[in-house]
Amino acid sequence: MSLTATFDDAAGRVRLVAAAAPGTADTALFERSLDGTVWTTVRGGEAVPLLAGGCRLDDYEYPAGVPTMYRVSYVDSADVVWAGTGTVASANNAAVTPTLPGGVAEGDALYLVAGIRGTAGSANTPAGWTLIYDSTSLRVFTRRYTAGVTAPTVTFSGGVAGDDTLAAIAALRNGSTTPSTSATVVNASQQNVPVPGFVVPDAGSLALRPFKKQAASTAVALSGWGQLAYGSSSAGSGATLGVLGFGDYAANTAVPAQTVTVTGGVAAASRAASIVVPRAAYVTQETATVTPAQTGVWLKNIGRAYLSRKITVTDIGTITRRARGGAQDIIARTLGIAVTDLRGGAEFTLQVTTPTLTDAADLEARLAAGDVVFLQPPDTDDCPIPTGYFWVGDVARSQHSKRTTRRFFDLPMVEVAAPSSSIVPITATYQSVLNTYATYAALLAGEPTYADVIDMTGVPDVVVP
Description:
Helix content is 6%, strand content 43%. It is mainly beta. The chain has three domains: 2-76 and 283-290, Sandwich (Immunoglobulin-like); 81-277, no CATH class; 297-427, Elongation Factor Tu (Ef-tu), domain 3 (Beta Barrel). Strands 8, 9, 10, 12, 13 and 15 form a six-stranded antiparallel sheet that branches. Strand 35 (396-398) and strand 36 (407-415) form a beta hairpin. The longest helix is centred in the last third of the chain and has 11 residues, at 357-367. The chain is elongated. The protein starts with a strand and ends in an 11-residue tail after the last helix.
């Protein structure tokens, strides 16, 4: 797996390229952060489809001149499924080492279920694991599988001679390591093991029912449920450990309490749990850092990236923030009353110059769409131009000499909210392809792959003929 972040000053973008994604992932989520704590989704990066294990995304709203961390999260939209269970390990009041499942893969959620016969004993949390369910003598721990993870040795506290200890590890594909809900029941002595009911909050979840009985057995079963793990120990006074699983639930499904049938052994006390494992937020993540060394001032069209361009700013007017309230006179009173509201955004006139008539026509064509623009100066301490999203009012074009080709544009800028996140950048249109290549053969010669076509950068067309 890899993520690269490369700044292109000529295009005014940071290109993010993800490769070698986990085979189970089908989309990628791209985010950016300045501190590694607060993350913002990159525009268009909420669910980027993966093709042959890779994808890419361009960020036009990067913080200029600032070290920026990017993160890609590979997401699997499939339901949580059981991927295997290792061998159940058992002993007499001693540490045990259950094996990892044979089919475990990068990003799988590992669920370690550990039990001890005596009610006063409990399993200790292994290094690198998190305790997510605690019923004293029956505990469940989780962690995410990554390359190099090995099976832990599970130790116990509070046990006495004759207390059987058992542990097993199950792998859940696309499962979260944080359950959405859990329930517990402690049962008096009986042959079978009652298990608690529960509610499944989210569709696609997998339910686990781990349990422990203070007697050995020969088999366990619960109608409709799969046996994910089963172990019976006679190393001490005898104990049984089991994990049952079931998925394919609709959201908000209520599952009643049921009873696990235990074959063999004798009546004994038991305890059981119901744990609901939702989909994981992601399979794995990668990060990359880049400092966009931008030169010049960009005037960007967020939805139509091919209309973005660098501009030469010659002046910036007084920045004002209009009051949206007022003072009202009151009859027979010296002092009036104020009606207040938040002030408006920044307003100013930005003067831009173009050296040639061709360049002037190009700027006018790019402004003709009338969209909200993103004004982005370089990150310099002495730059007076603010960064932000602006609506451009009536554009005035002038020249300072009758014979010169240099033109000056006065752009009335009004600060507004950023465009909706549903607006994503495009660099070319179908018309751009037709304008550039006269025939299909010419297109194949110039842009051999579909990736090359979508990477084209168009030029401004007449917005309204």
